[in-house]
Amino acid sequence: MSGHSSPPQDLLIEIGTLELPARLAAPLSREFASRLFSALGECDWIEPDACLESWHTPRRLAVRISRVRGISPGQTVVHRGPSLERAFDIKGQPTAAALGFARKQGVGWEELGREEGYVVFRKKRPDTHLEEVLAPLVEKVLTDLPRDREMRWHSRVPPFVRPIQSILFLHGNFPVPGRVYGLDATPLTRGHPVHHPDPLPVMSSNDYEAVLASGCVLLQGSDDPGLRERIWALIETAAHAWHPDWQPVRNEATLTEVANMVEWPSALTGSFPERFLALPEAVLAEVLLGQQRVFPLSDAAGHWKPGFVAVVNLESIDPQRVGRGEERVVSPRLADAHFFYQEDLKQAPAERLPDLDEIIFAKKLGHLGQRRKRIMKWLSRWAGDFGIDTELAQEAGSLVLADLTSRLVGEFPRLAGIAGAVYASAHGSPPALCEALAEAYLPETANSKLPQTAFGRLLSMALRIDLLAGYFLIGEKPTGQRDPYALRRAALGLVRLMDPAEDWAGCTPGTCRFLLDTALTSLFRSALETYPEGLGNPEIQAGELYSFLMERFRGLYLDGGGRADHYEAVLAAQPTTIGSTRLRLDALNRLKDQPDLTTLIQIAKRVTHLLRHREETDTAVVGRAPTVSGERTEAYLINQICDLEPIVAEAASTHRYHEILIHLCTLQNPLARFFDEVLVLSPDPKLKEKRLDLLKRANRLLSTVADFSRLQPPHAP
Amino acid sequence: MTDFQNVVFTLNRFWTAEGCLWLPPLDLPMGAATFHPATFLRALDSRPWAAAFLQPCRRPQDGRYGENPNRGQHYFQYQVVQKPVPDHFQDQFLASLEAIGINRRVDEIRFVEDNWESPTLGAWGLGWEVWLNGMEVAQFTYFQQMGGFSCEPVMGEITYGLERLLMSLSQTDEMYGLPWGAGTEGRIFRYGDLFRDNEIEMSHYNFEQADPSELAHRFQKIEGEVQELLSTGLPRPAYERVIEASHLFNLLDARRAISVGERQRYVLRIRKLAQAVAQDYRTRSE
């Protein structure tokens, strides 16, 4: 039995599975670990200073929590019996009442205690042992883990991501019995399926990493890039051993995926016929990195070479044979891509346009031909203001969907945009247009690359705004976990396209102004109005879309370490664009620890408070007689406000919020004195109205950047 | 000697020893062994089932007039289905690969996420594509849904792509060069000796000669027949018509006789038929 009276020990839990999807292993592992930690913590099994480690490989999720108790002491319950007077006679002998009570508790009367004038029985509930709770708790955490699709494999166990094959529980040096998903927990783990097929005993939870290494399994820490870098070093070594001048092309997504597919990695090389280098680099990259998960090679000048490095989950006794196997896949795939590419080139992009009428964009939203027309219309409205030639923008809008009917995109959907650019270029479209087409789907994911040209940015905005507008009109907004059309991702991308904290590459000052000034609701309304009438109310949906985007921005801002109260305060000032929201937040953040701003915020809160609850609050100054100095103070405040209003308005028109905050700080003295010396809620109704109006003006001015009343005091987090 | 016919013999022996029933292929053109009633229909009821069989498959769109080294309109799948799925299904599969001569110390086998879906059959499953030195040689799937119905118990399916498996095993770069087996006087027949002419002629037929209006007409007629057969209480003949409809659709597609938009409608029409058959079969098998 685990050492019940011994100090807390490390608890090791490993869930052995069949191969987990590479894209899910890391998030699953993180989520499993943190949920397990909090579930154990809630039931008080973990010492306060415990720490949590977690790992994953393609075939396991593992967690180690330090300082877990083996036993949870049962609580003592006090049962109260009769009063002492009733319980004992004058000789101190128990009465029938006391004996009855003792009998009910199942003990002799000698075991009863005395507390506060009553006889009591203190009953200790039995201790709980870790083994009684661990298995059900682990099973619950596993069943509740979020996942996109779950697999059923056996009628008697709940679904999971992939079949669960083994369970390891170890508390210090002791196995913890239990059954999870129909499997008995053991102190055994599994090594590499080829290099170490036999079960591996783990003697102590601290030996886990070493035991697995002896079984040819490298663990990947949930937040540790160590394995990735180790694999990258293997790739580089393999490349240089083959051709000292060739360098592997690094790609984080593929490297991460590969790291999640191997337990005992080794790298080997392969080649393909040189003629395939004639394919556009993006097509080569899609075949090599995207499909085959092998790394292309380039020379010092960055020209790609007819070879690659593959990472395999085996130390093969004949690596050349494995390499030849990889070649046997890569070459035909490139041959296919080459064939599709050549076929597609025969047709001019414009010739494909009629096909778009045959492809449904979305139920109730018509076909892609209609989407194309809407995008063109939207572009014709905004391109000029954005700083792009309207005619060229229309042309881009016309062609941006054309490649969706090409054979290359049919085979490699991720080449949408890039394929269109290549074909447009081959048929004589101007380079600026082709560059924009290539960037029309950027950014692909939350962290990935943004367009490098203003034109590409505009086109990407057009596609996203049309998409969001359409789905909102037909009421297909994401709810809870459900977001089948990935609208959140589309919106997050749109936010990033308009966020000045991102790189606004290729944007002229005019384009930057457009991004900072053009109200989100206008951009959406003009897209909503390109849809047929009767789908939904454009006015209402423009407002909904504004909130939807702001919500995405909020997530982005908080993830970047921003303060929630800053965000709420700025949102309350009703910024019309993502850009002006970001710049206001930056200004607040820059001044957040300045005493001047702190004082200003306090005064501003007083102003808002007084305007909101004027009846109750102004009693402090009620009854104060008007004085000469009071009138001077009032006049001084009026002057200050009149001076500041145009200055602030001008600075606001170009989003110079830091400057505005500095200016507003000059209001703190006049306002403080005003509160000290002037009776706002004067018995004279005229004076009262006048002074309240003055405060309203002050409040409007103070709220230019943010609603200060929503800010937490500076010491709060 | 690793040749095509010996691999099939070995797999037959291996899987029958594991408790699977050996079955003949179905004598109808189909795109994948999943269409075989031993897979589709048997996945729909609740009775235990285990079978292994070779199934010739046709995908007219994949024809390359015999010129592509590893793509053709006609190929062979070796299919294993088991219900309920044994806990050691993956180990069985790995042992079957060793039985046909794969040395796992030499060749890398990897299970890569692959969520299988057949829109025409109203079916989906979760599992893996199996890579042998980077080449996808098999699919390993736990069916979750078939004909629109949740599979209970779940059926597990392994589909070996025999040509690719053999290319990797025999280190052959071209499908048509694969050794098939020894014939009269020990003469070695190659895959191309047996099937290349067929591949060329069938490519011509599929891409150029098949009569689209005739195909479309037949397709339409089948829709009525399926309803008719189901109302007469004949789900199995009705299901054969669904397989036929699916192949007609593939031919129409190869002839480029259906537009992109129509394509989706055809898929939905077949799915409707498959679901009707599945519903009827389930009701009768309860």
Secondary structure: elements and pairs:
The complex is a heterodimer of chains A (717) and B (286).
Chain A: E1 9-17, H1 22-42, E2 52-57, E3 60-68, E4 71-72, E5 76-83, H2 84-87, H3 96-105, E6 113-115, E7 118-124, E8 128-129, H4 130-144, E9 164-171, E10 174-175, E11 179-180, E12 183-186, E13 188-190, E14 199-201, H5 208-214, E15 220-221, H6 226-242, E16 247-248, H7 252-259, E17 266-271, H8 281-291, E18 295-298, E19 304-312, H9 319-345, H10 353-356, H11 368-386, H12 390-399, H13 407-411, H14 418-426, H15 431-438, H16 454-473, H17 487-498, H18 509-517, H19 520-528, H20 538-559, H21 564-572, H22 578-591, H23 595-612, H24 614-617, H25 628-653, H26 657-665, H27 668-677, H28 685-702
Parallel strand pairs in A: 9-12
Antiparallel strand pairs in A: 1-3, 1-9, 2-3, 2-15, 4-8, 5-7, 6-7, 9-10, 11-12, 13-14, 16-18, 17-19, 18-19
Helix pairs in contact in A: 1-4, 6-7, 8-9, 11-12, 11-16, 12-15, 14-15, 15-16, 16-17, 16-19, 16-20, 17-20, 19-20, 21-22, 22-26, 23-26, 23-28, 25-26, 25-27, 25-28
Chain B: H1 4-17, E1 21-22, E2 49-58, E3 74-83, H2 89-99, E4 109-118, E5 123-132, E6 135-146, E7 149-150, E8 156-161, H3 162-169, E9 179-182, E10 188-190, H4 191-209, H5 212-231, H6 235-254, H7 260-285
In short:
The complex is a heterodimer of chains A (717) and B (286). Chain A has 717 residues and is of the alpha+beta class.
Model description:
The complex is a heterodimer of chains A (717) and B (286). In chain A, strands 1, 2, 3, 9, 10, 11, 12 and 15 form an 8-stranded mixed beta sheet that branches. In chain A, strands 16-18-19-17 form a 4-stranded antiparallel beta sheet, sandwiched between helices. Chain A has 717 residues and is of the alpha+beta class. Chain A has 5 domains: 9-72 and 129-221, Alpha-Beta Plaits (2-Layer Sandwich); 76-124, no CATH class; 226-344, no CATH class; 350-561, no CATH class; 579-710, Orthogonal Bundle (Isoleucyl-tRNA Synthetase, Domain 1). Chain A is flat. Helix content of chain A is 50%, strand content 13%. In chain B, helix 5 runs antiparallel to helix 6 and helix 6 runs antiparallel to helix 7. Helices cover 41% and strands 24% of the residues of chain B. The N and C termini of chain B lie far apart (47 Å). In chain B, strands 1, 2, 3, 4, 5, 6, 7 and 8 form an 8-stranded mixed beta sheet that branches. A two-stranded antiparallel ribbon of chain B has the order 9-10. In chain B, a hairpin with a 2-residue loop joins strand 6 (135-146) and strand 7. Chain B has 7 helices and 10 strands. Chain B has 286 residues and is α+β, with helices and mostly antiparallel strands.
